[in-house]
């Protein structure tokens, strides 16, 4: 198992223990269906045991859009991953997720935070926006996307004919990374299960990933967002579309037209009409 996947598995197991789930093993020797134990005869220590051939490496993960551009070929629907199955909580709710999160100290980010930024909006929203993590203003107010980038996101939402309270807004991590750096892999592995539970409870029709960190986390890829921005993907019963982060648009205003094209795709999928000026 590669180190990154091993860290994810360990983080999931620790997270499940916090919920009181598990254990995830069975004593096969005590099971009535267990196969009989066969004791091998004593061997001559001078005769070396045969060596086993190494197991073949797992196939590399491919990022496949949910809508094929070729009419002749359609990608097969992917089966749920191990992580998607394990983190589903029966009878879950946003209140229960917030209670389970508690005064979280699961990763190093808690040391510098002011407030946990859980998420805000309509708990039955058809559209959900996911960013990377809180900034300074979000850390102070405890609400996602309230700074300069947040004001731009609000304008984007209103241009779609919606209000901020009509959608749900959350982040991959719920505590501000120091100096607004990107979240580290281990921080994402510990915190992202709460985001997955939020998605499962809200059950949006469309998830719009804002920026590389959110898109790479949800799609489990290391590819840059420019490789798949504006493409549709299937994710946990919803349609997912990545686009640029509002903070990126503040630095690169020319990219606003690309984001508007992506938002128009979302509007068409949800049957929304743009706001009249």
Offer a concise description of the structure:
The protein has 277 residues and is an alpha/beta fold. The protein contains nine helices and six strands. The chain has a domain at 83-271: Uracil-DNA Glycosylase, subunit E, CATH 3.40.470.
- Sheet having the most strands: 6 strands, mixed
Q: How are strands sequenced across the largest beta sheet?
A: 1-3-2-4-6-5
Order of helices and strands: HHHEEHHEHEHEEHH
Q: CATH homologous superfamily of the domain at 83-271 - what is it?
A: Uracil-DNA glycosylase-like domain
General form: globular
In which range does the helix fraction lie? 25-40%
Distance between the first and last residues' Cα: 55 Å
What's the alpha carbon Rg, rounded to whole Å?
22 Å
Structural class: alpha/beta
Mean of all residue-level pLDDT scores: 82
Number of helices: 9
Strand content: 5-15%
* The CATH C-level class name of the domain at 83-271: Alpha Beta
Which CATH-level-2 architecture of the domain at 83-271? 3-Layer(aba) Sandwich
At CATH level 3, the topology of the domain at 83-271 is Uracil-DNA Glycosylase, subunit E
The parts where pLDDT drops under 50 for at least 5 residues are: 25-53, 57-62, 67-83
């Amino acid at each position: 198992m590669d180190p990154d996947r091993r860290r994810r598995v360990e983080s999931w197991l620790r997270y499940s223990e916090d919920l009181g789930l598990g254990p995830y093993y069975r004593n096969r020797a005590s099971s009535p269906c267990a196969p009989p134990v066969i004791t091998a005869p004593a061997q001559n220590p001078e005769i070396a045991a045969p060596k086993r051939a190494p197991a073949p490496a797992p196939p590399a993960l491919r990022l496949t859009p949910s809508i094929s551009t070729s009419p002749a070929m359609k990608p097969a629907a992917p089966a749920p991953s191990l992580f998607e199955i394990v983190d589903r909580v029966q009878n879950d709710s946003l209140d229960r997720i917030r209670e389970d999160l508690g005064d979280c100290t699961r990763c190093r980010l808690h040391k510098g935070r002011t407030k946990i930024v859980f998420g805000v909006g309509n708990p039955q929203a058809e559209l959900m926006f996911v960013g990377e993590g809180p900034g300074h203003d979000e850390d102070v107010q405890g609400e996602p996307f309230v700074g300069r980038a947040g004001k731009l996101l609000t304008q984007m939402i209103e241009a779609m004919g919606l209000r901020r309270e009509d959608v749900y807004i959350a982040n991959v991590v719920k505590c501000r990374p120091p100096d607004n750096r990107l979240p580290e892999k281990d921080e994402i592995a510990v915190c992202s299960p709460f985001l997955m539970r939020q998605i499962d409870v809200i059950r949006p029709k469309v998830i719009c990933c804002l920026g590389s960190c959110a898109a790479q986390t949800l799609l489990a890829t290391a590819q840059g967002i420019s490789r798949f921005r504006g493409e549709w993907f299937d994710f946990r019963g919803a349609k997912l579309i990545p686009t640029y982060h509002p903070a990126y648009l503040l630095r690169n205003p020319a990219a606003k037209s690309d984001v508007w094209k992506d938002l128009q795709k979302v509007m068409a999928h949800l049957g929304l009409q743009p706001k009249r000026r």
